[in-house]
Design brief:
2 copies of one chain form a homodimer. By secondary structure, the first copy, chain A, is of the alpha+beta class. Chain A has 9 helices and 18 strands. In chain A, helix 2 runs antiparallel to helix 4. Chain A is globular and about 70 Å long. Chain A starts with 72 loop residues before the first strand and ends with a helix. The interface between A and B is large, with 56 and 56 residues.
Chain lengths: 453, 453
């Protein structure tokens, strides 16, 4: 295997709808993304929109309701690793139609009947790899998928208890009891909608990239505020944390080859042909070499959280399914994340071994109701721990209570503190060379603004 | 499908080594199991022993060191569901050889050199189904598998840091650094040994049952106290909790078709042929019928923690892969647990559909260091919650500080409080009709007695 064998095999993406120009590293400016409303999915970024009966023409911004831009504050930094920004973000209001309208409905009437909509807020970060293509597609598409998924179940969401049948028809007299016993709540329909939206978006990205001859993938971290509750869905290694007065709590966990080792090894155990005889499923503390043959060395397999010793055989010298430590860990020597969108075409260089069977687009869901959320791509977390970010948030906000731009300033300050220019408030002066995106989302003001609909 | 289609397909087990006679329901007596020491694995319950170089003749009890019988207190009740007790238990001292001895070594010398052994304590509960055969085999075998697994790694366990090579030879100068970076500690070797022991024991049970034409399976809940730490390994629906002065903490979690729904559905998604077209992978709040056809009903699939609606098709009317609610939930209409030992031959009645691919023998591991552990089979937990058991433990022990039999009495009291005879100290008078086994293990006195070796 050549030295370049495990290099990421991507080139910067080709032409795609409205990629953001790279930003100069020295002066990050607040990110303002065009708002999206119902029907914005019909842009080129979501090619399936024309086939959906609910895809309507983009409404003119002037006619839409004002977006709560102060609902979230984003900063994005381009590390100049690639021509286009591999970090992409999207945020805006979600308008979910509560009633069934025919395709011929009057747009004006829809605008007037605001109570026929359930509104929520949406924030999303996508960290691309192999070019920005998948991240841009996801930023343009996922909210439309989510809106459609939510509209498909909205009748159940606004009911006191989700009915067994969406029609409200009761086939079996004890249907409400069955639903009650399973403990199914309106929140579970939102969670299900987010899970299905990730799957749908992944399929759209797969089709779009194939059709346009592009490649790549991205992580996805999404926060949705709906009916007074915050939902966080994560697939990849971005992170969201909740900062409260006396505590800091993770709202997501990272999915990397290391954190998902047992699931990935288990799949290779059940389907050894996925490795095509080129990799070993076993984990060792380092890659083995000829001198280790016949020795008893530390190892672990799919069924083990602990470690044991095994006598090294020739097949153990193959390249490991998961190799490297911490942020250097790679799946099949190629990918640093184990969940995300895209990568349908991705193969190990010079082989036919596919990454996708090991890579899931299934997000992990968290449900929260309080305080301040910080969402950021990995560049921030490389340099600052949860606790350091919490300390920065807690020390910054109380002194800036009157500043209407304090959340935006906080996002900016968090990014600056990773650039090693002024040692930052952490005083540790660590430096990040990655793209960085940060959202700061104040939950309480969200709750006051949008807990109704 | 007939009404009896989902009945457990087992008959009481045939002759097996030393099954305990059924105990009368009315008067549970303290359980005293013959102690096991090194080499006890050469009995008929562990057929692989003769092939191991370390399998030695059973040492006469009179020559072994005294077992700390007051280390754990067990109560077992037979609900008279079957001729033999389906609950089985084992406990005793684990003696792990620290040095390599040849087969010809003088037994006397071994006895004199106690410091060449690492000693620990072992408690295990096995809740059988389809007869007691698997539970009896597990009670007679698992400790031998564990001893062998521990002996295979003991040099690494007693080192300051487990070496990369068991020989201590350093093939690569930075080997200690690789081990350090992976964070591998001596505890991880004990965890790995427990995980491997479960796998090995499962294989032994599979071979033994097949050879003797018997069937069945069992859950396994194992606690091991070694080098001042408590390890709990669980596969099935028994439970261990830690009771401390101000808190109660679960030491295990249950593995049932409900708690492992996503793993099981995922396997059926990847391998649809495992269901032979007879089952549907999807979960619905109740089993669907013809009237539901064409309706949109609540469902969830392998990638969903939440719920959504789908239009019912004919294939959705099949029997569900997982059906029923709570303790009634069954895997393929057959099994109430999703992890355990045995069941290699188990098939859905009148079909060729195997349970084993969905059933794992992989335990979940917890590591603890303090206070009081209560281990019990499901009969106790059916009637008493963790909090109720904790309340009973906390109210009983302080008033009985001087009683040398107080832990034994506590185990007896816990079982009595499930029999509805005297309303028990809970005053709730709920009654269990299942076999019940209870261990009460005081950790601090364990720590004092055996933290050395």
């Amino acid at each position: 295997m050549s030295a370049g064998w495990f290099r990421r095999r991507f080139l910067p993406g080709g032409p795609l709808p409205a990629p953001r120009p790279p930003r100069p590293r020295a002066s990050p400016v607040p990110y303002r993304r065009p708002r999206f409303l119902r029907g914005s999915g019909s842009g080129p970024g979501s090619a399936d929109a024309p086939r959906r009966p609910d895809a309507r023409p983009v409404r003119s911004p002037a006619r839409g309701r004002a977006l709560p831009w102060n609902a979230g504050y984003a900063e994005i930094i381009n590390a100049e690793k690639s021509e286009f920004n591999e970090d992409q973000a999207a945020c805006g209001q979600l308008c979910i139609r509560r009633c069934e309208f025919g395709a011929e409905e009057d747009q004006e009437w829809l605008t007037l009947c605001a109570e026929e909509f359930l509104t929520g807020h949406y924030w999303a970060l996508f960290d691309g790899h192999g070019g920005p293509a998948a991240a841009i597609l996801a930023a343009n598409t996922l909210h439309s998928c989510l809106r459609r998924q939510l509209e498909a179940v909205v009748e159940g969401m606004v009911a006191l208890q989700p009915p067994m049948h969406l029609s409200g028809r009761c086939v079996c007299p004890s249907d409400p009891q069955f639903v009650e016993e399973k403990g199914i709540r309106a929140e579970d329909l939102v969670i299900g909608a987010l899970e299905n939206a990730f799957q749908e978006c992944d399929e759209v990205i797969g089709r779009e990239l194939e059709a346009s001859g592009q490649v790549g993938g991205c992580t996805a971290l999404v926060a949705v505020f709906l009916q007074g509750k915050l939902y966080v869905a994560n697939a990849g290694d971005s992170r969201a944390i909740l900062v409260r007065k006396d505590e800091v709590r993770p709202l997501s966990s990272e999915f990397t080859p290391e954190t998902e080792r047992q699931r990935i090894q288990q799949l290779a155990f059940v389907y050894p042909e996925l490795l095509a005889g080129e990799f070993t499923r076993l984990e060792f503390p380092r890659r083995l070499k000829g001198d280790d043959l016949g020795q008893k060395v530390l190892f672990r397999d799919h069924h083990m959280r602990g470690w044991s010793y095994k006598c090294v055989e020739k097949s153990d010298l193959k390249y490991p399914l998961i190799h490297g430590q911490g942020r250097q860990a790679r799946l099949l020597g190629t990918l640093a994340v184990s969940r995300g969108l895209g990568d349908h075409q991705l193969r190990v260089l010079d082989t036919n071994i596919q990454l996708k069977p090991f890579l899931l687009s299934v997000p992990q869901l968290e449900l929260q109701e309080e305080d301040v959320v910080v969402m950021a791509t990995d560049g921030l977390w490389d340099v600052l721990s949860n606790e350091q970010v919490a300390r920065l948030v807690r020390s910054f906000l109380p002194g800036n209570q009157e500043d209407p731009h304090r959340f935006s300033e906080l996002a900016k300050m968090l990014i600056h503190s990773t650039q090693g220019k002024d040692d930052g408030p952490t005083g540790e002066g660590q430096v990040s060379y990655d793209d960085i995106s940060v959202f700061v989302i104040p939950l309480h003001s969200q709750g006051q603004r949008s807990s109704g609909h």
